[in-house]
Amino acid sequence: MKVSFHPDFPEDVRRFRTTYQEISGPLGTRFQSEIGAAIEAIKQSPTGAGHFLNFGTNIVHDIRRRNLRAFPFFVVYGLTEDMLIFGSVVPSRSDPLTWLIQF
Fold it and tell me: pTM of the prediction?
């Protein structure tokens, strides 16, 4: 399966990591590590790694989210027949309608 990242995905990670690094350098490192672990878990089992979100988009029919364990964020990703698409890193308290902007 081909893996793709939305162009803004790395910036999302950097922005939130920087926020945590301003609090504590190791905290920023832990955030980055947890994002990496979530990405790997999703790659290993795209249909089993996250919660299904039914928004009925025409482009990506299978949109899911993977919650981070120690941080109030999740990774939004989509599946097509042959592609895994990482869309965004989203704060858990954000408006659900903004999640689909990446797809």
Answer: 0.81
